[in-house]
Design goal:
The chain is an alpha/beta fold and 323 residues long. It has one domain: Rossmann fold (3-Layer(aba) Sandwich). It contains 14 helices and 17 strands. Strands 2, 3, 4, 5, 10, 13, 14 and 17 form an eight-stranded mixed sheet that branches. Strands 1, 6, 7, 8 and 9 form a five-stranded antiparallel sheet that branches. A two-stranded antiparallel ribbon has the order 11-12. Strand 2, helix 4 and strand 3 form a beta-alpha-beta unit. The mean pLDDT is 91. The protein binds S-adenosylmethionine. S-adenosylmethionine binds next to helix 1.
């Protein structure tokens, strides 16, 4: 039996560095949703102001490169003269090489790195962004079995669980606020990544992290205990992931958490609807009309989409800034 992070680190390293891995056949993300990236670009252009020349942007956990592509496309449309240094940062050299091919019309630089380690290469970053990286970074699990009994959840290779004593006072104090018997992830890897980024941010700079997870006790309690405990660790073809505990991240880093769709709607100033096609996307009403055929082929009824299913609340936008 081992802490979850020890198993997760090894599995994810093997998964992302394997020649056989084709990540988007194993799971779907919002990384290729142009709406979120466009919202980032619009906000960036309104914040960058006089820093325009040579501003440094870092993206971590880049996947296909499309999250960078749509961002850069929109930034250059809005500010054609802008001079940017855009850095693609990822632990997999193979993923970086493929993304660079997609991004060949832009000038981008690449850095192979582990987001959980010291990020000494960051130079005066103005904007640091990531989509679905934090859920991949290492996490441990804890559970409150009664008012005083805080335990760590250990796992074996088949992900069977066992509870062991937890001695760390900071964790015990945090876990006392959580509902009993819910196995709660604490994403130490994401905390280290975001803290290291925050330390290096230039004045006026900011970090955006998009991911799935929970930001309130109500969200935890909204799922029956058994369903929560059986689904909090997910395995995609060997890779291990868990929800991001934004309650803990916000306690560690400050900052602000909101719904990802809420953020995107606020910046784009229009209502958006969740659709799951080849990847995850937001459609506005014009998209619903113009892509009717594709939606039908994917068994979507227009009324169903416009009915606004709320299953997306678990996708969050976490913002940390240096004023
Ligand atoms: C779930 S994919 C998300 C990709 C893309 N952002 C998207 O949303 O489609 C996670 C990405 O993070 C990278 N990654 C995983 N662990 C990492 C680590 N410790 N340091 C840096 N990159 C990592 C993977 O290689 C992969 O590109």
């Amino acid at each position: 039996m081992q802490p979850f992070d020890e198993i997760q680190r090894g599995r994810n390293k093997a998964y992302y560095s394997s020649e056989k891995t084709t990540i988007y056949s194993d799971f779907k993300t919002f990384g290729g949703s142009e709406k979120v990236a466009y919202a980032n670009a619009i906000e960036f252009c309104s914040r960058v102001g006089e820093l325009e020349d040579g501003v440094n942007i870092y993206e971590f956990g880049i996947g296909s490169g499309m999250f960078a592509y749509y961002f850069l496309e929109k930034v250059y449309e809005l500010k054609p003269e802008i001079k940017l240094n855009y850095f693609l940062c990822d632990s997999s050299g193979k993923i970086i090489e493929n993304a660079k091919k997609k991004l060949k019309k832009f000038s981008v630089e690449a850095i192979v790195c582990n987001a959980e380690e010291e990020l000494d290469f960051l130079e005066d970053p103005f904007y640091i962004r990531s989509n679905e990286l934090c859920d991949d970074l290492s996490a441990k699990f804890f559970v409150k079995v009664n008012e005083d009994g805080i335990k760590e959840v250990y796992f074996d290779r088949k992900l069977n669980k066992e509870y062991t004593n937890c001695e760390e006072e900071i964790i015990k104090a945090f876990m006392k606020t959580l509902p009993e018997n819910y196995e709660i992830p604490i994403n130490f890897g994401a905390g280290a990544y975001l803290n290291n980024c925050k330390k290096k941010l230039r004045k006026g700079g900011y970090i955006d992290s998009f991911d799935y997870g929970f930001a309130s006790l109500e969200e935890v309690k909204s799922l029956p205990l058994e369903i929560w405990n059986n689904s909090i660790v997910r395995e995609f073809n060997g890779q291990l992931t868990t929800d991001v505990n934004f309650i803990w991240l916000q306690k560690e880093l400050g900052g602000m958490v909101e719904g990802q769709r809420e953020y995107t709607e606020r910046i784009l100033k229009r209502k958006l609807y969740y659709v799951e096609l080849e990847q995850l996307e937001y459609f506005d009403e014009a998209d619903i009309k113009s892509r009717k055929k594709e939606l039908k082929e994917n068994d979507y009824e227009e009324d169903f989409i416009l009915g606004g299913i709320d299953e997306l609340d678990e996708y969050k936008h976490f913002r940390v800034e240096k004023r």
